[in-house]
Amino acid sequence: MEHFSVVQTLCRIGLEGADPRFRKQVERLRDRLRGGDDEKSASALDRLLSGAQSEHTLTPSAVEVSRLLVTGDELTSNVHPPADRETSVPLAEIILQPGMGKPSPIYSETLSLALGAMLGEWQRVDALRAMGVEPSRSCLIYGPPGTGKTLTAFWLAAQLGLPVVNARIDGLVSSFLGTTARNIANLFAFANRYRCMLVLDEFDAVAKMRDDPHEVGEIKRVVNTLLQNLDARAGTGLTVAITNHDALLDTAVWRRFENHIRIDMPDERTRVVMLSTFLNPLPVEEDVVRTLAFVVGKRSGSFLKNFADALKRVLAIGGVQVSAASILGAARAIVPRMAIAGAETSPAALFVEDEAKFVGALLASGLGIRQASIAKMLNLSQSTISRYAQDYAA
Length: 394
Ligand SMILES: Nc1ncnc2c1ncn2[C@@H]1O[C@H](COP(=O)(O)OP(=O)(O)OP(=O)(O)O)[C@@H](O)[C@H]1O
Ligand SMILES: [Mg+2]
Description:
The protein is an alpha/beta fold. Helices cover 58% and strands 7% of the residues. The protein is flat, with a radius of gyration of 28 Å. Residues 149-150, 201, 242 line the site of magnesium ion (MG). Residues 135-267 form the AAA+ ATPase domain.
C-alpha cells in the first residue's frame, strides 16, 4: 500500500485514544488490505491493534477505575438537579467535568502523601476486594479559608473521572429552613441514583443551626435527616464534605466520615512553589519568589493567587520590562492595598516603609538570599546593602 508508513503512524496515534469507533475503522482497513492481498500491511495493523488492546487493559482509564467504586445512572447535560419545591431554586449544581479550567492543587509533602494514599485506595478497588475489604467512601476536608479545600474535592473527582454533584449546605439551610429536611432527603436520593461524587460544601452550616434558639424541633429533624442519609449512602456513593469550622461539628457527624483530611495554611516551601506557579508565565528567579513569599508571610493559597494576579496586572499596565527590580517595584505598589498590615515590624510593613530594616530582616531570615540578588531586586548598590547589613547586625 502506498504511504503505508504514514498510515501506520496515524493508526498508532489514533489507537492511543482508545475510541472504539477509531478501532473499528482500523479493523476495516486491515480487512480490506487482507482482501486486497497485502498481507504484510494487514499483519502490521494486526500487531498495532493487539498492542493497543493490551496497553489499555493494563492501564484502565479514570472512568473505568471509578466504575468499580461508584455505580449508577450516567449524569449528562440533560439531567437537572432537584430543586426546592416552593422556590424552584436548585439544591445542587452538577459539574460534569470538575477538573476543566481548574488549576492543579499544590500541597505540602505530607498532605500530598495523605491525599495520594486515599486516592490510591479509591483507584484500586479491585485490589482491596481481592483482600476482602471494601474501600472507604467518605472524606471530611477541613481547614482555614482559602487553602484549596473546594479545589481539592473537585480535583479528587477529576482524578477518578467522576462528575460532581455540588451542594452548598449553607444555602440549603438558611433559605429554606421550613423545608430543609425534605430538601436534604431529595438531594441524597438524587446523588444516590447517579454515578457521581457528592460534595457537601460549607458543611458546618448544619452544625451552626444548633445554636439557633428558634425552630429547635425543626433543627433536630434536619440534623437527624442528614445523619440518616449519610448512613444510608455509606456503602455505595462517594461523599466529600468540606468545612472551615471543624470545631463546630459534633462527634456524631465527625464519626460519619472514614477519612479526615486537614488542609492547613501552606508551609514556607509550599508557598514558594505556589507563588512561582501563580506567577507563570513571568520569568521570575528563585530569589525573587522567595523574597515575595517572605514579604507576604504565612498566607493561604487563595491569597497568594490574588497577590500574583495583582502583581501581573500592575506589570501589564505599567508596560515595564519584567525584571527582578520591576517585580519588586510592582509588589511595593500592591502590598499597601492587600490588607497585609499587621505588626509594624512585619516584613510587609518594613518592605513598604523601611528599606534598611527590611534588608536586615531579609538577611537575618535564614532564607539564604544573596546580597547581590537583594541589590538587583531593590535597585541598590552592593555597598548600600553591606551598610544595611552592618547596621542590622549592630
Ligand atoms: N493548595 C492550593 N493549590 C493551588 N491553588 C490554590 C490552593 N489553595 C488555594 N488555591 C487558589 O485559591 C482558590 C480558592 O481555593 P478554594 O476555593 O479551594 O479554597 P477553600 O479552602 O475552599 O476556601 P473557603 O474555605 O473560603 O471555601 C483556588 O481556586 C486556587 O486558585
Ligand atoms: Mg471552599
